[in-house]
Amino acid sequence: MNGLPQLYSRQRSPRVQLADATPAVLRFQDGHRTSGQLQTVSLTGGLLTLPDPLVQGSQVKLMFLTRTGSVLGAAEMLDPLSGGLQPFRFVSLPVQDQRRLGDIIRLTLGTTTEQEWIEKLRAAANATPQRGRLFKMMMGAAGILTLGLAGAMYFHVLK
Q: 99 with 135, same domain?
């Protein structure tokens, strides 16, 4: 249900700053809610602007809407920074939400998705390259020329 990529990896998950103002809603276990703005996001966490800082270690459900759809994940709030900024890390993120988040990160970074790569590779495999056609035509012409010369030599020897 929720495999968080690179959670323990040394390679840092790509982070993006979303171009549009992205409102976020945080729901606490007791039902209390607060809202903020998502500043930076990655597959492992991000940075929120909140009106009041939350206690480090607070467990929340974080919800926000992107161009690729809504994302809902469980998050743990990290030590607040100055200016109302508070980092968080995803504790769990369902696969569909992880995919939506990955899509918006790739769109923002301008990278190609795995599905787009598969489609490009299939198109390349099914396409007949022009150079291959030209090579076949040249080899056919050379074969005909060779047969013609062999026939001419055969008739020349018989005379």
A: no
The answer to whether residues 140 and 102 belong to one domain is no
Residues 6+ apart with CB under 8 A from 121: none
pLDDT one-digit tens code per residue, 103-136: 888 887 775 556 666 676 777 677 655 567 777 8
CA dist 53 → 47, 56, 80, 84, 134 (Å): 12, 9, 6, 6, 68
pTM over 0.85: no
State the CATH number of the domain containing residue 68. Answer: 2.40.10.220
